[in-house]
Design brief:
Structural class: alpha/beta
CATH superfamily of one domain: P-loop containing nucleotide triphosphate hydrolases
Order of helices and strands: EHEHHHEHEHEEEHHEH
CATH class of one domain: Alpha Beta
CATH topology of one domain: Rossmann fold
CATH architecture of one domain: 3-Layer(aba) Sandwich
Bound molecules: adenosine-5'-diphosphate
Low-confidence stretches: none
């Protein structure tokens, strides 16, 4: 039985394309939560849960955490009350098995409404990732040059300490890009064939990308206004 439709959106793009940054802005603009599997894994890592311990070795190498645990984690997250109107997926799905699982998890509420591909060249992605800094407390994302905090090393939102992710080292980033092209890039074709894909140029400033994403959603009648 199909229940009330929900606004489920997917953000695709290479590591560093700006998915997390844009998902946070969309969360405010659309009033539906961002579900970042990377953030969920990092939260588990920080709290040393069983899931965090399992995920760590994969994340350290820049490989994907096994589908079974990743999909179960998303399934649980989707059952929380804040997802009653939909969700913005950032960093999930990352391969075909996850995409098929997500179709199944969302089918009862109308499935994925739109997939936004944020495109960016690899060398620019590398520059973005090596300058990325993240708040230890709230996970807010900054860049030392492109999106600096007001006070160096300190989060604008909650005063938390900013740190560089262990997996943002150049060697690990190269493997993450490789994994993206091998496992995640085929999803571009998967969603294109379903008529769900919109591509936005991710090399523009943060606010321009955000405006382009919102315009794309309106054009596709995925959101009103
Ligand atoms: P980025 O934002 O740079 O693309 P993420 O924060 O999304 O990186 O992911 C960091 C790491 O967490 C990945 O390299 C991978 O090990 C793990 N991870 C995140 N999402 C998934 C997923 N959907 N499936 C498997 N592993 C994932
Ligand atoms: P992803 O989630 O796709 O890995 P992030 O949102 O974490 O990407 O962005 C990667 C880095 O690039 C961060 O340091 C972020 O501040 C910066 N960034 C994001 N979008 C832009 C943009 N449009 N222009 C310049 N820097 C950006």
């Amino acid at each position: 039985m199909v229940q009330a439709e929900r606004l489920y959106l997917v953000l695709l793009g290479v590591p560093g394309a700006g998915k997390g940054t844009q998902a946070s802005l969309l969360e405010d603009a659309l009033a539906i939560p961002q579900i970042s599997t990377g953030d969920l894994f990092r939260y588990n890592l920080k709290n040393q849960t069983e899931l965090g311990v399992l995920a760590k070795s994969y994340m350290d190498r820049g490989d994907l955490v096994p589908d079974e645990v990743t999909i179960r984690m998303v399934e649980e997250r989707l059952q929380r009350e804040d997802c009653a109107k939909g969700a913005i997926f950032d960093g999930f799905p990352r391969n075909l098995a996850q995409a098929v699982a997500l179709d199944q998890l969302t089918a009862v509420h109308g499935g994925i409404r739109r997939v936004l591909l944020i495109s960016l060249e690899d060398d620019e992605a590398m520059r973005r990732i090596t300058g990325r800094r993240v708040c230890r407390t709230c996970g807010a994302v900054y860049h030392v040059d492109f999106n600096p905090p007001k006070v160096e090393g300190v989060c604008d939102l909650d005063g938390g300490e900013l740190y560089q992710r262990d997996d943002d080292k150049p060697e690990t980033v190269r493997n993450r890009l490789f994994v993206y092209y091998k496992q995640t890039a085929p999803l571009v074709g998967y969603y294109f064939a379903k008529g769900l894909l919109t591509e936005v140029d991710g090399s523009q400033p943060i606010e321009t990308v955000q405006a382009a994403l919102l315009a794309a959603l309106r054009d596709a009648a995925a959101v009103g206004g």
